Amino acid sequence: MRRLTCDICVVGGGSGGIGAAVGAARTGADVLLIERDSCPGGTVVSAWVHNWEPVCGTSELCRRLYERMRLMPGGADADYSQSLSRLNVEGIRNPPLPFEPWAFVRSVEAEFAESGVRRVLCDTVFCGCRVHSGRIESIVVQTPFEMLEIEADFFLDSTGDIVLARAAGCSFLKGAESASEFREPSAPNHADPTDLNAANWCYRVRPVESGAAFCGKRLSEYPSECVNRSKFCVTMPNGDLLVNPCGTTLLDPELEAEEYADRVRSAREIAYLCWHWDAFAGGKKLQLAGFAPRIGIRETYRLAAVYVTNENDVIAGLDFQHDDVIATCDHPLDDHAHGRCRELTQGYGISFRSLLSRECGNLLVASRGFGVSHIAASSCRLSRTIMTLGEVAGRAAGICVKRRCLPCDLKISSEPSLLKVSLRNGKGSGG
Fold this sequence. Notes:
The chain is of the alpha+beta class. It has 2 domains: 2-177 and 309-423, FAD/NAD(P)-binding domain, CATH 3.50.50.60; 203-291, no CATH class. Helices cover 25% and strands 23% of the residues. The chain is built from 10 helices and 21 strands. The protein has helices spanning 15-25, 43-46, 60-70, 101-115, 163-167, 179-182, 257-281, 311-316, 374-377, 383-403, and strands at residues 2-11, 31-34, 51-52, 97-98, 119-121, 125-132, 135-142, 147-157, 172-174, 203-207, 232-235, 241-244, 286-291, 301-303, 325-329, 333-335, 340-342, 348-351, 363-365, 410-413, 420-423. Strands 1, 2, 5, 6, 7, 8 and 19 form a 7-stranded mixed beta sheet that branches. It has a 4-stranded antiparallel beta sheet with strand order 11-12-10-13, covered by helices on one side. A two-stranded antiparallel sheet has the order 3-4. Helix 1 packs parallel to helix 4 (101-115) and helix 1 (15-25) packs parallel to helix 10.
């Protein structure tokens, strides 16, 4: 088996992995990124979640990526500055930031080239890891042609299902925690590991001049899941509508394989029938342009981190801050499985310790699976929030490479721009 070495290995090329790779590379670290798909982008590209919801606390990396996309004909056309908080001063929701997936990939690759991310292995799947004395020494991955062992000083798990952290023996959470776990006021009395935020299959439609003729399907043949279903739609630069049917199935990763596959197929069928209902029964002039390559998953496993960001942090908002806040968020608590959406009156902070594993000192988690409770995860799972957390994690790992220390040794100073990091003993600064 061939062996590769690097300072920092990022596992997963979604929003968190993009931020992590850029953040680490900009410290001068030698970064290697692996991604299971054929290009970076993660859920944004593969599940067609190529629309950034308005949210506070995002980094300049997100702005740079969007401004790059605006320079590409047809890539993006919205004003980035109008989407820097969930609500405007009148309490009205700010506009989203739609963009084309191809433009996002081009923008990310340009950012990689500029920041110094030289090695990106796509179509590469994580297979396992070697752990010794609380430290991940190497991982094994499968490329299209060979298996590789990758040795690194630090590893960043940016997979949605925290596959590296779980393989390394790190504690994790799944489903709804009980009220006694974090003393969350909205938590149930008893934990329910199967209570996960719902998944759905996004699709795209194109307004046309003439409506479709009724196909003969009786209205009673449409399942209740698609009849007059509430959908989130955003207009793309070319006039297409990107449609999110907002939570059509529950996908527990511990389901039997056959049932899991059946639920995925069912979600795609509901997406098709949602369009069919609108175009044929509802009389809307919409042509189906296509389905996302993959179903969009909001929640599976989450790290039982040194500190778990929870509902109490969300409620406290900016009136209470940890000493190590690295990002803020003001997206509502948005539970699609139960149809609950609670708007927030202000943003809240996310602790650096929520990225740190209790078991592996050289591991940081930067994905939707970071240390967050089930309730709080319904708010801070957005792409730009996760990308900002990833950038912080990458930068912290890069500083640890330079200073020969561990992430737990860093002192975090919260600033509006991005984190400022130094060693707890005061020697040196990564700012």
